[in-house]
Amino acid sequence: MLPFSIELKPGLPITEQVIFAVKKAVVAGQLKPGQPFPSVRVVSQELRINPNTAHKIVAALVAQGVLITTPAVGSVVAEQAAGDRAERAELLGADLERVVVEARKLGLTLEEVTAGLAAHWKKLGGRKP
Amino acid sequence: MNLTWHIIRKDLQRSRWALVCWAFGLAYLLLQPWAPLQGDNLRDYLQGAAMLLVLVLGVGLIADLVQADHPTQENSHWRALPVSAGRMVTVKLLLIGMIFVVAPVVAVCIRHVFDQGKSLHHASEYGLEGLILAAIVLSLAASAACTRNVLQCLLLWVSLIFGTGTLADFLNRFAPVLSLQGMARMGMTKVLVILTLSSTIALAVILNQYLRRRVVSSAVLLLGGAVAMATVGAFWGYFYFYSTQ
Amino acid sequence: MNIIEIRNLHQHYWTKASLPDIFPPDATMSWRTEVLHDLTLLVPAGSIFALLGANGAGKTTTLKVLMNLLQPSAGSARVLGVDSIRLGEAQLARIGYVAEDQKLPDWMTVRQLLDYCRAFYPAWDRQLEAKLLARFELPEDRRLSHLSRGMRMKAALLASLAYRPELLILDEPFNGLDPVVRDDVTQGLLESVRQGETSVLVSSHDIEEVERLADHVALLESGRVKVAETIESLLGRFRRIEVDREAAWPAGSLPASWLDLQSGAGRTTFIESAYQPETTEGHCGKLFPLAQVQARPLPLRDIIIALVRPRRNQTQGTNT
């Protein structure tokens, strides 16, 4: 069982997808600082991916400061410079771009999109993440 | 040696029922006079059945044992295992040698020991029996090593025998006619030469199939061997007397 | 270091070819058929290398040559540093091989098969054997001939994984397996494969499985290697580009790396096979001024299709 949510989609490089999912989980609070991160082996087996790829992912996360390696425990989630709002917004960037492109194709205005966004927000509003 | 025995055990395990039946048939044949049966007709019938059993099962077993770990098939299991070709061919030769050459000769020997009326044969007689069995068994194994299933093996083997015989018969017309003394002097040498030659060629084919996997040269060896034996069979007398001049 | 090195490998076999009608209907002739043409392939140690290709492209033949099940007609194939025709007991004890057409001893039960194979491999790990037996849920006392296709594959795989081979060669292991078994096999593989220590060469049609498991891929076509690259590099250089303009000039003036260009009804799409953000955007800027350009990653399956069957570039009214 992996401590972060992920749904691998074909087409996008797996490395990118997993790194993105981990960063999102850290920012959203799903992964807490100090929490042990699964080993390369577990990541590879749980996601059914190449162990070299899993190794690269963990190495990249360590290099980007998302994880730190401790001698005894292994990889651990690092203390994040409090995921500021700008960073969080950036993580949503790709999804936002897609919405804008689709809206443009359908010929919707910014006001219509915002109204639709607000409606969906209200609908899901009662539930805590 | 341990691995060789491990593979032999696997083959024995695989063919255990057929081997038991074959051994029973052989034992029945050799112990015949001791069986307290009444009425010659029934005994003859059973004796015939036992002989048929031993022959048919024997042929099937030898072909099956060789083809279970086929020398040249691309999808054989043993080639992907850490078993050298030399080891596998040793396994097959030991198996068929022990079961179909040594065991029957030893059984006959034991039978003679228990047979109060007769004296022990000379070692050379047992040697000759062994050589005859070796020639038959090895030629059968060689045919099996060159074919894909028992039926094809049988077809090849029978064709070789009949082909050789027919060719020898044909060549005999050009062969020197020997007097009775000549034939007496020649004695067993012709038979011995033919048996040894066929065993050697068969062995060469088996080794060629397992070790070198050259199917074409195996076919050449088989055909060449058949021709050689027919020639020797027809012209041995000439050669024998010429060389002893 | 390469765990497998194939250089200029040629493989041919003799087949009965059909003769022209002037010959009597029963007549046949032996004809030499080339299965592999001057094949060169290097497999780095520690990688999971996928061999893709249509049926008859030469995947199985290549794998059989590597295992010394077939002797090469010309050229060389070196495995674990040794010529394939010289593979001995020492090397084979470090190699695992599973193929669909392999003749397993069907009379044996699963237990008997494992007992038989175990003796040949000094590195056999009984604990791993037990773990995989449980994971694969194989009935120990059932004969191999009475096992379903999926269970047979699992049994064969078990017998090849239990001794932790340095090199694992798999010939279409996922063929005809249902998704559950496929997942079992993938899991079993990943559990036994030691990152950096085990190399895997797997031939497959299953591109989804390949995309996740493999890090290198080679595409075989008519006995030749068409493409051999890391998956990362392939995914990196291919993009599907969509432009909201039509292309209105002869297709010959387009960059050579643009494939399958379709233009019409107000938009143009094509596959860019040498994607670099600045260069591609630059070309698009020149050819489609002020147009909106969208670049989307291409799944591996579409990349392979584009490589195998490159469609001609088409612009409205003109075909190249």
Q: What is the CATH C level class of the largest domain in chain C, in words? A: Alpha Beta
Placed side by side, the strands forming the largest sheet of chain C appear as 6-7-8-3-9-10
If helices are DSSP runs of H or I spanning 4 or more residues, what is the number of helices of chain A? 6
Number of domains of chain A: 2
What do you see in this structure?
- The complex is a heterotrimer of chains A (129), B (245) and C (320).
- Chain A is mainly α and 129 residues long.
- Chain A has 6 helices and 2 strands.
- Chain A has 2 domains: 14-77, Winged helix-like DNA-binding domain superfamily/Winged helix DNA-binding domain (Arc Repressor Mutant, subunit A); 92-125.
- Chain A has helices at residues 14-28, 40-47, 51-63, 85-91, 93-106, 110-125, and strands spanning 67-70, 74-77.
- By secondary structure, chain B is mainly α.
- Chain B has one domain (2-243).
- Chain B is 78% helix and 0% strand.
- Chain B has helices spanning 2-14, 16-30, 40-68, 85-114, 123-145, 150-171, 180-186, 189-212, 215-243.
- In chain B, helix 6 (150-171) packs parallel to helix 9 (215-243).
- The mean pLDDT of chain B is 88.
- With 320 residues, chain C is of the alpha/beta class.
- Chain C has 2 domains: 2-230, 3-Layer(aba) Sandwich (Rossmann fold), CATH 3.40.50; 238-319, no CATH class.
- Helix content of chain C is 29%, strand content 32%.
- Chain C contains 10 helices and 16 strands.
- In chain C, the strands form 4 sheets. A 6-stranded mixed β-sheet of chain C has the order 6-7-8-3-9-10, sandwiched between helices.
- In chain C, helix 4 (126-136) packs antiparallel against helix 6 (179-192).
- Chain C starts with a strand and ends with a strand.
- Classes of the chains: A mainly alpha (129), B mainly alpha (245), C alpha/beta (320).
- At the A-C interface, helix 2 and helix 3 of A face helix 6, helix 7, helix 8 and helix 10 of C.
